[in-house]
Amino acid sequence: MSxxxxxxxxxxxxxxxxxxxxxxxxxVETPVFMPVGTVATxxxxxxxxxxxxxxxxxxxxxxxxxxxPGVEQxxxxxxxHKFMSWDRSILTDSGGFQVFSLSELRKVxxxxxxxxxxxxxxxxxxxxESAMASQIGIGADxxxxxxxxxxxxxxxxxxxxxxxxxxxxxxxxxxxxxAHKHEVPWFAERGKKSQALFGIVQGGMFPNLRKESAExxxxxxxxxxxxxxxxxxxxxxxxxxxxxxxxxxxPENKPRYLMGVGYPEEIVQYARMGIDMMxxxxxxxxxxxxxxxxxxxRLTIKNQRFASDEGPLDPNCSCKxxxxxxxxxxxxxxxxxxVLAQVLNTTHNLSYYLDTMRRVRQAIILGENSxxxxxxxxxxxxxx
Length: 384
Ligand SMILES: Nc1nc2cc3nc(NCCc4ccc(CCO)cc4)[nH]c3cc2c(=O)[nH]1
Hints:
By secondary structure, the protein is α/β, with parallel strands linked by helices. Helix content is 40%, strand content 19%.
C-alpha cells in the first residue's frame, strides 16, 4: 500500500511551523484553519466558492452523517467526497463530542456511549469499533479516534478515569481501523491508499495528566495527534498554558490538531505555539448571527451605525464581499433576514480566517515576526 498520508515541516520560527500534509485527496498547507461542514456542507456557501477561497480541507461530522443520511447511504454513493462533490481533503470528528453536545439520555460504559438521536429520539450506541466503521464508510481522509471529551470542570480523579478510558478506546480505535482500513470506498481508485487515523490527547486541566495522556497516546502511535478536551468552557488562559506545555511532548514530525478553536487572535496564538491544524464553527456560526470579523476587530452588522455606511465591511480585505458590497447593504440584508446575508457574511468570515492563516504561514516562512492582527482583549465589549 503506497504512502497514505505524509507531513513535512517546511519552515520553523520558534515553536511555530509551516508544513504540508499530503492526503489521498491532495495537499494541505499548514498551519491550517478547517471550516466546519457538519452535514457535508459548509452552511451557506457552495463548494466552488470554498475552492475560490482556497479551502484545502474541511470537516464533516460523523455524529450528524450517521444519523442522516446514514453511513451506508454515503458509502453506497462512493463516500463523502463524491457525495458532496468535494475533491480536496476532508477530516471527520469521531462523534463522541457531538453526542455530548447534542443528544439526550447519554450513558457511558466501557463498551461505548449509548444515546438518543436529537432528530427522532431513536436509540444508538457509538463505540471505538462503530466509530471506525462509520468513518471508514463516510471516507474522510483524516479520521479521529473515538474518545471521551472530559467535561469542564472536573475533579482530578474523574479526569484521570476519563483519560484512562480514552486511552483504552484509542487502542481499540487503532485495532479496528487497522483491521478495516482497506474498506474505505475510494481505496482502489486512490491507489490503494487508506485514511489517516489521529489520536486524541485528553487529561483535562491537569498538567501531569496532560503529560501522561500525550506520552501514552504517542506510545500507541498515530500519524497525527489532536489535543481534545479544550474549548469546553475553561478560561482561555488555562487553555493556552496547557497547550503550550503539551505541544512539546508531541513528535515534531507529525501534525498537531487543536480541536474547537477559536477566535482569530487565538488561531494566530496557537499557530505560534506549534499547532498545525484548528477547526471551529465560530466564523460560520457567528456570520449567521451577524457577527463579523475584520482587520479592525469584530462588529455586529445589524448595528444602527452601519445604516448609511457606504464603505466596505473591511477596507483591508480582498474577499469578493468586501470588494463589492457596502456595510449599509449588508446591514439591510441581515435586518431583512435575507438568505443572502448568511451567504455573504459566511464568505467574508471564512475568507478572513483563511487569509489570517495564510499570513501566519507566510510570516513563518519569511521569518517575519509580525502578523498584524487585532489583539482584542475583551471580545464581548468590542462586539459593537
Ligand atoms: N473528538 C473530540 N472532538 C472535540 C471537539 C471539540 N470542539 C470543541 N469546542 C468547540 C466549542 C465551540 C462551540 C461553538 C462555538 C460557536 C460560538 O458559540 C465556538 C466553540 N472542543 C472539542 C473537544 C473535542 C474532543 O475532546 N474530542
